[in-house]
Amino acid sequence: MVPELGVIEGYFGRPWRHTDRKRLLTQLRELGYSWFHHAPKADAFLRRRWRERHPPAAFAELADLSAHCRSLGMRFGIGLSPYELYRDYAGPAKSDFFSKLRALDEIGIDHLAILFDDTRGDVPDLAAREAEIVHAALASTRASRVVMCPTYYSDDRMLDVVFGERPVGYLDDLGRRLDPSVGVYWTGEEICAREIGTGHLARVAESLRRKPTLWDNYPVNDGPQMSRYLHLRGFTGRPSVIGTHIAAHAINPALQPYLTLIPATTLVTSYREGPAYSYMRAFREAARELAGDELAPMLEEDLHALQDLGIDRLGDERQRLRQRYLAVNHPMAVEVVRWLDGADTADSWVEEA
């Protein structure tokens, strides 16, 4: 079974350019992806400054993006992170929340995602507070679908280390309280899961009382460590049989929009081919189709350097690779050069999250 496929632009780092985003979404739609959630961590008006409206130019871009998605037959959504609203959901904060929802409705959204990730959650009644906010959004928004991301969106203990110990029974409590129509994002056994299996998904679905919507943190390459690598290989560790255990499968893309298309294509191939899927063959076919006969062999030859060694261990090879890709006229080659120049690594940008 091929589940519904989507994309959530939920990475840290510089957001894609508007023109690149539109071009990429057109190609993703042709591949079979049916929805897109706009939620880049660098958009402060969706995170720490969520109470404020987007500036007119940014608002106009979002409205244009919505119209573009709909012209493709692709559903458009926005991910709102109402920063720590659950700590004081009353009075002015509640009023600001409803004002924000009205502003998002003006943009034109098919989906609304309420995201509680990357905030502290060590409060005993966290699930009840988050469910109350989600239900308020569900009753107010004109979006046809509401999905939420829990504060603890994975079994990964790193979340407890960074954001405080999760409340006992949090996931079961959340599943019991949430309206059955609300989707729930889940990344897997780890934040960046090496593999996602049916046994794990069945256990999560039992706790949530619904199939999870998979937030797959591949090929995303944000943050201080991951931004120093390019994620190009075909998907692995996601056997096609998981399709019957999830509500949908969304990928969190890389900082490089055009290079993202290669692994994104292999996910479609994986579900289509099932047990016959071969990740390197899928990579080669996707690279040939998307990068062309000149660039595709280069990407395969340099795959170990780009994805495994990373920018810090290239040494003198870094300059050689730069000249190699600089000679190719293709958007993907431009992205490789930009990455080699260090323009996409986490130390090159200042985050306002």
What's the layout of helices and strands?
Blueprint: E1 5-9, H1 18-31, E2 35-38, H2 56-72, E3 75-80, H3 91-107, E4 111-115, H4 126-140, E5 145-149, H5 158-163, H6 170-177, E6 183-186, H7 198-208, E7 213-216, H8 223-226, E8 248-251, H9 257-273, H10 279-301, H11 303-309, H12 317-326, H13 331-340
Parallel strand pairs: 1-2, 1-8, 2-3, 3-4, 4-5, 5-6, 6-7, 7-8
Brief sketch in words of this structure:
Helix content is 45%, strand content 10%. The protein has 353 residues and is an alpha/beta fold.
- What's the name of the CATH homologous superfamily of the largest domain? Glycosidases
- What is the CATH architecture descriptor of the largest domain? Alpha-Beta Barrel
Supply the CATH class of the largest domain: Alpha Beta
Range of helix content: 40-55%
> What is the percentage of strand-forming residues?
5-15%
H and E string: EHEHEHEHEHHEHEHEHHHHH
For the secondary structure, the number of strands is 8
- For the terminal residues, how far apart are their CA atoms? 37 Å
Strand order of the largest sheet: 1-2-3-4-5-6-7-8
The geometry reads as globular
Spans with pLDDT under 50 lasting ≥5 residues? Answer: none
**Main beta sheet, described?**
8 strands, parallel, barrel
**Number of H/I helices:** 13
Mean pLDDT rating: 96
Q: Work out the radius of gyration.
A: 20 Å
Structural class: alpha/beta
- Supply the number of structural domains: 2
Reported by name, the CATH topology of the largest domain is: TIM Barrel
